[in-house]
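Appendix B. One record, verbatim.
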Amino acid sequence: MDPKAKQIKSNPAALLPILVFLVLYLGMGLIFEYVLKIEMGFYNIPIVVVFMVALLVACLQNVKLKFDDKMVIMARGVGDKNIMTMILIFLVAGVFVGVTGRDSAEAVAYFLLSVTPAWASAAVLFVAACFVSTAMGTSVGTITLITPIAVAVSSVSGFSLPLCIGSVMGGAMFGDNLSFISDTTIAACSTQGCAMRDKFRANFKIAMPAAVVTLAIILLMSMNAGVEHIEIPEYNLWLLIPYVLVLAGGIAGMNVFVVLLVGILSGIIITLGTGTVDFMTMLGAMGSGASGMFETIMVTILVSAMCALMREHGGFEALLAFIRRVFKGRVGGRLGVGLLVGAMDIATANNTVAIVMAGPIAKEISEEYGITPKESASLLDTFSCIFQGIIPYGAQMLIAVSTAVSLGSTVSAFEIIPCLFYPYMLAVASLVYILVGAGKKKP
């Protein structure tokens, strides 16, 4: 821990900027979503503007400190190497998603559906979503692409629509949690200062058992479905190659920038070579992919500046003092990290923002309780995905429901929630890991 941080006195009032953000964002979101009935109400709130208000509150605190000195503190927070790395990875990952696009993701789902029995189609949707989201690094993008396939499978097979959509959402959160290019992975690793390969290995011990149990549950529910045949549209297997290369490179421990560049170059060659898109369309897709990350980058910058001021004003010391009183020992410290990011996610309905906000505080908790960087990064990512995967007002749920409705189906979030087996199994696996595995003091 920084020696200077030990000299800062605990000051609960320094946490006021977080409270201001939560009240404004959560309050307006609930009003927009459930009172005014605005579609995607939470996502109509300009989150960058709300964070600017919270940052202004942080700047107005501690009047003894000159504003110029506060600017230096904020610049130091934003200029951290991990923040810069995070921003660059966000941009390159956005370009990769723009290059691969819809056709590649659909090819994965159709290929898996074509090589498995029809009665296992719901399980295949889960596996396809796992693969696509791990390769693309976006749960929302995966749900957008695979939900229409889930609706089609449900309509021709007799599987319930909530089960099909719940399977897709579960698989999407699996990849969001494990992917090397997911916003959440990038944010968790950068804030905790660990290599993505190390975080993946720690995370895999939690996510894979949850996925295997989820797959078994879906298969058991599917055995008596009586489904005999499903029509599979034509697809191009060549489009799977960029995904496979990215997954293989990430697991092999290659530098994330190298992995992404290989994926982008292979995607460009294959999509242009197969005539999937023309050159100008490809350029536009690359630009759209990068620009799609701009809001996340701005939030990262504003949160970094705000956290730097809160730390200087004594907010982190106050929060640590509270955690010391409530959470005891190795198990308590890990639960503290998980519940901290979970609370942030419930309030923001955005797991990346939740990790960016909770990350600096989690880093302090980890140092206090002897939690390794890879373990704290894994806990941040896992618990944020658990809560994000089940809240009815999260982007994942809203996109899934609106996509199904736009295709002529009728389904509600509360019909899908009982079928979200993966987030529930992930919660169980996380608690077992904390109580049994992480709770043991290593010799």
